[in-house]
Each structure stands twice: as structure tokens, then as C-alpha cells.
Amino acid sequence: EAGVTQFPSHSVIEKGQTVTLRCDPISGHDNLYWYRRVMGKEIKFLLHFVKESKQDESGMPNNRFLAERTGGTYSTLKVQPAELEDSGVYFCASSPQPGQGIYEQYFGPGTRLTVT
Amino acid sequence: AQTVTQSQPEMSVQEAETVTLSCTYDTSESDYYLFWYKQPPSRQMILVIRQEAYKQQNATENRFSVNFQKAAKSFSLKISDSQLGDAAMYFCAYRSASGGTSYGKLTFGQGTILTVHP
To answer: How far apart are CA B112 and CA B97, in angstroms?
Structure first.
């Protein structure tokens, strides 16, 4: 079974440009999460999809970030326009429909975003 | 809001010995889940061990065990018989069990880099 995959693995863009990150969850996982780790700091939650719906987007930092999950499969996270403080590693995770149990979130390898 | 603190940025251990990684958290909730995740260099994060707050018995997974002290809000990870493959960044994480829209959100600590010396 393929794990969570993310593309690209690394992106370097200039301030003001647009970048789109992609996450493919494990097949059949209804839940998809985005997290971000800014250099030297803790991993922070961005948002949670259940199928194609946004369950929780309380962690999205501002309206320059747009996440979509059309069709309830893969998800994209667009940053437009990128700022220097957006640099960091963006992680995606997925889990099966959990109910309220102590389920595991399976993480992808992350996309390292560098804004110069 | 919940917070998770890992006060040890780096730890080291000799192969075959035991090491304990610290984690404390702050919450007003009574029902929650705690996790330890491991991220080896250039690899993805994987779950090491998990604990439900309502269970008094400490979770164990082979060489990994936790010391869960609910009153003290402490959740340390003990690695016994350390192996070279245990070298990684370890993250402690909290998730609410109380429902609401944020039921899926993991709150992480800052991470502890573990080095294993041969």
C-alpha cells in the first residue's frame, strides 16, 4: 500500500510568487490534514478535510493560503503571494474515517518551501 | 488552547542503553490522546506509541514505553536497548477527544533530536 505522497519535495520561489503544493493521501482515507513547521519551531496544524469538505481550517495563517480537495482525493495548498515567513516544511497527513477514536495520522515526507 | 512542551532540544544515548525523552502538556480537558512520533533523517514521520488519557496503564510497544502522569500532565518516552536506527527527531503530540470541529488537530511539541552512539 502506497503511503502519503507530497509533491514537490522542495520548492524555491521568490517573494511575491505563487506556489502550489500537492498531497496524495493513502487510498481510501477520508481525512486529510495539512501541517507546517517553520524553521526551529513546532509543527503547527493548518487544516483538516473530511472528504472534500473543510472540517477545521482554524490553523490557516491568512487569506494568502488556499487549500482545496476536489473530489475528496488529493489536496492542493496554494500560497499566493508568498512571503518570506512562509518558508518551512509543509506536511500532509491522512487517516481513515476515525469517528472519535485514538486513530493514527499517517504523514507524508513533507515539502520544503523556501521563499527568497 | 492546548500546548505541548519538549524541554530537551537534543539528547544522546549509547547503543544498548536506555534514554528517556520528556514531554509536558497543558490542557483543561479531561479526555484526550497523546502520541509520540519519530522522524528519521530525510524520512517521513511515523507513529511510535499512543496513549489514551482515561487509561491509567502506561502504553508499551516493544522497546518503547511511556510514563504517563495525568495529574502532572507529563508524558515521557522511554527507549530501552537503544539501537542506531532509533536516531531521529521525536515529537510529542496531543489531540483532543472531546469532539467539536477540531477533533482531528494534533498539537505538537518542539521536538527532541536523539543521537545514538555506537
So the answer is: 25
Query: What integer is the mean pLDDT of A11-23?
Result: 98
- Collapse the DSSP code of A64 into the 3-class scheme (helix H, G, I; strand E, B; otherwise coil) and give the result: coil
B44–A56 CB contact, under 8 Å: no
Identify the CA nearest to A22 among candidates A43, A11, A34, A8: A8
Band of residue A23 on the pLDDT scale cut at 50, 70, 90: very high
Chain B residue with minimum CA distance to A108: B44
Q: Does the pLDDT value for residue B5 go beyond 80?
A: yes
Q: pLDDT tens digits for B22-63?
A: 999 999 999 999 999 999 988 899 999 999 999 989 999 999
Q: pLDDT digits over A61-92, tens only?
A: 999 999 999 888 999 999 999 999 999 999 99
Task: Give the residue from A58, A16, A51, A14 showing the smallest Cα distance to A35.
Answer: A58
In this structure, are strands A65-68 and A88-95 parallel, antiparallel, or unpaired? unpaired
Q: What secondary structure letter does DSSP report for A86? A: G
Strand partners, B94: B34, B107
Q: Which of B106, B112, B113 to mutate to probe the A interface, most A CBs <10 Å?
A: B106
Q: What is the DSSP string of chain B?
A: --EEE---SEEEEETTS-EEE--EEE-S-SSEEEEEEEE-TTS--EEEEEEETT--SPPEETTEEEEEETTTTEEEEEE-S--GGG-EEEEEEEEE-S-STTTT--EE---EEEEEE-
